[in-house]
Amino acid sequence: MIFTGKDNLSINRLVLYFYWLFAILLIIAYKTVYLLSVGKGLWSTGHRISPDLIHPCICMLALLITTEMLYRIIHNYFDYLLIGLGFIFSMVIILLFSQYFAGIYMVLVFPIVISLFYFNTKKLWFASILTLVGFFVMLPFMEFLQDAISIYDLLGIVLMVFSVSILGHAILIRAKELQVSLARAIRSETEAFADSIAIESDSKYDYLTGLYNHITIQEYMTALIHQHESYGMPLQLAILDIDDFKNINDSLGHHLGDRVLQETACLLRSSISSDDVVARYGGEEFVLLLTGKTSEKSFERLEQIRERLEELHFPELEDHQITVSIGMVDYSKNMGKEGLFKLADSFLYEAKRSGKNKTVTHPRSGTCHAEQLPG
């Protein structure tokens, strides 16, 4: 498991908080043990602080304040400094409690436990070596320990430190295995999510043009008709068909036909507002749902689209122009989806039958045709 510099800073802050809390609890614990061991008489006579406690308290306080200052200055290797502080704390505990508890040497694992916060093998073994070397270096200067500790105790301390270190190493290995498994599971879940998005995309969009397909436009049509029926939102349906598209495919090849479809789709997408919907319905046929506009405004928009498509230039077509025929219907209450589409399709047929390259529609009040004849 790898932590970034920012992660290490947050862990260092957490360890520092822990040290402050630990120092307070240590003082309380020693005072409690001291009173219980020596007796309550000292409390009543005013000896409320053990003489043995003053110097360790000053030492811990000075160390913590110095560490807090260094925390704001040093960023690299500060975690090693905190592990070293953990060793000093363990020695202070031994100094204070060795006369009361025979097995107090177990606190030497304290810096090793602190090193596990960082999930780093190097820091773990640094803590282990520091603990052993530091303890044996300081042992000659602590006469009270030399008298109380035997060769078997020293051997037990060495075995304890190495055992805890090996156990910590095994924990880190297992943590890394779990991290790899978690990363693999997340990656699999991400890939599955991406696949589901791709499947959803394939089911919603036309692969050639990137527009919605006929299934999606049907869903939009149902929803927008509901909006019209409930709130009276203006709605028009337009069916657009490329004129003589079969001849382009047959004479010049499907690759050019695909280009014509893609360019047409691009122009349609750029010509409508964010409130409108466009889809490739099938073959050379496109469907537009125009919302929030009057029939006249939608008719003008369709005419602009028709004229812009006529201006598209394909060198392979030489002088031949791309033209479209359009049938548009203004939705009326209770017309229904099938009735709307059927009427728009009949107007498209009328545009084709009467010469192509035109838009056929009808006003809301009647059934007469409004045509834009070619110039």
Structure description:
The protein has 375 residues and is an alpha+beta fold. It folds into 2 domains: 5-185, no CATH class; 214-371, Alpha-Beta Plaits. It is built from 13 helices and 6 strands. It has helices at residues 5-38, 41-45, 51-71, 78-97, 110-115, 121-138, 143-148, 151-204, 214-231, 245-252, 254-271, 295-310, 336-353; strands at residues 235-242, 277-282, 285-291, 324-330, 359-361, 370-371. The protein has a 6-stranded mixed β-sheet with strand order 2-3-1-4-5-6, with helices on both faces. Strand 5 and strand 6 (370-371) form a beta hairpin. Helix 10 packs antiparallel against helix 11 (254-271) and helix 11 runs antiparallel to helix 12 (295-310). The longest helix is centred in the middle third of the chain and has 54 residues, at 151-204. The two termini are 73 Å apart. Mean pLDDT is 81; it is low at 2-6, 42-49 and 363-375.
Q: What are the low-pLDDT stretches, counting only 5+ consecutive residues below 50?
A: 2-6, 42-49, 363-375
Instruction: Identify the overall geometry.
Output: rod-shaped
Q: Within the largest sheet, what's the order of strands?
A: 2-3-1-4-5-6
Our count of domains comes out at: 2
Cα(first) to Cα(last) distance is: 73 Å
The overall pLDDT average reads: 81
Helical percent range? 55-70%
